[in-house]
Amino acid sequence: QGIVQDDKRLVEQVVARGRGVVLLVNKWDVAKRVPRSTLAETVHRQLPSARCAPVLPISAKTGFGVQDCLAKARDVAHALRGVPEAELARRIRQAWTRRPPPRVRGRPVQCRDVHWFGGRSVRVHIVTRPATTLPPAYQRYLLNQLATWPKLSGVPIRLSTGRDAALRPSVSRS
Fold first, then answer.
1. Which residue has the higher pLDDT, 172 or 41?
2. pTM value?
3. For residues 3 and 132, what is the distance between their CA atoms, to the nearest angstrom?
4. Which residues contact 128 (CB under 8 A, 6 or more apart)?
5. Three-point CA angle 25, 31, 36, nearest 5°
6. How many CB atoms within 10 Å of residue 130?
7. If both were cysteines, with which of 69, 100, 118, 167 could 82 make a disulfide (CB 3.0 to 4.6 Å apart)?
């Protein structure tokens, strides 16, 4: 039967709410049309909103892969709690160096700092100089780089950029 519209809608809702995702392909014991090596690529092509999600073949009938999916669900739950910011910053800066963002008014955009905000909806904030919003295509590039990091497998991430001051709650001075 494959991935149907209801599957797509459900996955999109889960990802939009920022919840961890593990995609399971059931009936692997009878449906071996797709080579296991290309399974994730095939599923992600049909579910682009879940490109961060690991894809595991299972068979509910025989029990194949069930232990793997439980272990992967635990890994995703752990990743939702956070990753070391230094390691996250290193990953972002490596991607930034490989492919810098477009210049703003002729000036290069610098990555000054990276912050992780966990919770129900994970957000990664990149402090830039000059403080600017990165183009959507560049944000997708950075998100794709993070999606390939095994520690963040299954974690949908929202990206924000701008000033460091935007991170702190505003304090009214009377």
1. 41
2. 0.77
3. 39
4. 109, 110, 111, 112, 134, 161, 162
5. 60
6. 13
7. 118
**β-strand 122-129 against 110-117: which pairing, if any?**
antiparallel
Cα 174 → chain centroid: 41
Round to whole Å and give the CA distance between 97 and 66: 40
CA 69 from centroid of its chain's CA atoms: 18
The residue among 20, 157, 15, 18 whose CA lies nearest residue 92 is 157
d(CA 167, CA 112): 14
Distance CA 111, CA 96 (A): 8
Contact (CB, 8 A) for 154 and 20 = yes
Instruction: Give the contacts of 96 (CB within 8 A, at least 6 positions apart).
Output: 111, 142
Q: Which residues pair with 161 in a beta bridge?
A: 126
| Rounded CA separation 131/133 (Å) | 7
Length of the chain in terms of residues written: 174
Q: Which residues pair with 126 in a beta bridge?
A: 114, 161
Residue of 139, 135, 130, 85 whose CA lies nearest to 112 = 130
* pLDDT (0 to 100) of residue 173: 37
Q: Fill in the amino acid letter for 157.
A: I
Backbone angles phi, psi at 52, to 5 degrees: -80, -15
